[in-house]
Automatic annotation (TrEMBL):
The keyword Cytoplasm does not apply. SUPFAM superfamilies: S-adenosyl-L-methionine-dependent methyltransferases (SSF53335). CDD domains: AdoMet_MTases. One of its GO terms (molecular function) is methyltransferase activity. GO terms for biological process: methylation. It holds the Pfam family Methyltransf_31. Keywords: Methyltransferase, Transferase. This is Methyltransferase type 11. The keyword Cell membrane does not apply. InterPro entries: Methyltranfer_dom, SAM-dependent_MTases_sf. It comes from Aquimarina atlantica. Residues 50-185 form the Methyltransferase domain. It comes from the Bacteria.
Length: 219
C-alpha cells in the first residue's frame, strides 16, 4: 500500500476518533448540566410554547438551543446565534447528524445578532450578556426582532465575591449583577415581568448564583 494512502487512512481514523470522543464528551457534559440548570422551569418562566419562533443568542455549541427546539416542535423555529464560527460549525454538524429541521444557525456580529424583525416570541441570552460590550445596541436589535409583547430572558451567574464592585470590574471577572442589567433592560424599552435573584448555583458551585430577568417588549 503506498505510503500516502496509509498516511491518509491513519489521519482519517484519528479524525474519526476525535469526533466520537468529542460527541461523547458533549453528551455527558450536557446531561450533567441538566442536573443543575432546571431547564423546564426556565422554559416555563419564558413561556415558550409549541409553534413559537425563538432565539438563543450566545448559543455556544447548542446546549439550550436543543432544549428550545424540542419545546417549540416541528411547527416552531429556533434561531441559534453566536459570534464564533467554530461553535456554529459544530452546531451545524450536530443538527445535520440528527436531521433537525427547526433550527437556523446565525453567525452574529458583536453588536448585532442579525435576527429577523418583529418575528420572535422569545429571545434567550444565557451566560452571554456579560460578554457584550455594545449591550444597549444589542438590546435594541433584540427588541426590534421581538413581536409585540415578546420577551427577552437573560440568565447570568453572579460571583458572590464581586458584590459591591463596578460593572466593568464584574464583566472583567466574567460575571454580572442583576441590578445593572435590570436598569439596562428598562432603558432599552422593556418592562420587567419576572425577576429571580437566586435560581440555584451555577455548576453547583457555592460562589456562583444564577439569576434570571424576563423583560417584555413595551408597545
Amino acid at each position: 500500500m503506498p505510503q500516502q494512502r496509509v498516511q491518509f487512512l491513519v489521519l482519517s481514523i484519528l479524525i474519526l476518533i476525535v469526533e466520537i470522543s468529542y460527541a461523547q464528551y458533549k453528551k455527558i457534559d450536557w446531561e450533567e448540566r441538566d442536573t443543575w440548570m432546571n431547564v423546564p422551569r426556565i422554559l416555563k418562566l419564558a413561556r415558550v410554547e409549541e409553534g413559537n419562533a425563538v432565539a438563543d443568542v450566545g448559543c455556544h455549541e447548542g446546549y439550550f438551543t436543543m432544549h428550545l427546539a424540542q419545546k417549540v416542535g416541528e411547527s416552531g423555529k429556533v434561531y441559534a446565534v453566536d459570534v464564533r464560527e467554530d461553535r456554529i460549525d459544530k452546531l451545524n454538524t450536530y443538527i445535520k447528524d440528527r436531521k433537525l429541521q427547526n433550527i437556523k444557525t446565525v453567525v452574529g456580529d458583536y453588536d448585532d445578532p442579525k435576527l429577523p424583525n418583529e418575528t420572535l416570541d422569545v429571545v434567550v441570552v444565557m451566560d452571554t450578556y456579560h460578554e457584550m460590550d455594545d449591550y444597549m445596541k444589542i438590546l435594541g436589535h433584540i427588541k426590534n426582532a421581538l413581536k409585540q409583547e415578546g420577551r427577552i430572558v437573560i440568565i447570568e451567574k453572579f460571583k458572590k465575591h464581586m458584590l459591591n464592585t463596578s460593572r466593568a470590574e464584574q464583566t472583567e471577572a466574567h460575571t454580572l449583577s442583576l441590578k445593572y442589567v435590570k436598569k439596562e433592560l428598562q432603558k432599552a424599552g422593556f418592562t420587567i415581568s419576572n425577576e429571580i435573584k437566586d435560581f440555584g448555583k451555577w455548576k453547583n458551585e457555592s460562589d456562583k448564583t444564577i439569576w434570571i430577568l424576563v423583560g417584555t417588549k413595551n408597545n
